[in-house]
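ok trying this again, last paste got cut off
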Amino acid sequence: MAIDTESIALAAKIALNPAGFLIDKIVEATSKNVSKAESTSSDEIAVLKIEAERQELQMRMAEAQARVAQEIAIAKRIETAKEVEMEEFYDYGIEAHVGVKVDSGSVSAGVGGSGRRVSKRIFRFRGNTSVAIDAE
């Protein structure tokens, strides 16, 4: 029966310093994963970036189509209403501040700002006219 020196060395490492052995294995596994990720990540990242850009473009197109459909629906409703009341509010506000404070032994400075954009549209439709569509 042959004595396996590698097994004995491994058992000695575990018995003498179990925390060090675990840390060594974690570092070893992490370095393997990092090197593996570095070798394949550039292709995968490029594919993921392309997919993200594609989905963002689809989302923007869907949003634009929804806006157009909404405006068309409002226009059709305006055509068929007897009375239409529209209110539109636009408020663009910007606020900024700069400050300096001096105390005994310390000086502090700060800059801050905020901005807001509010737009609100209210449509009130009263009555309905019958619109006959002639199919010729």
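PB: full thing came through this time. Residues 57 and 63 are 10 Å apart (CA to CA).
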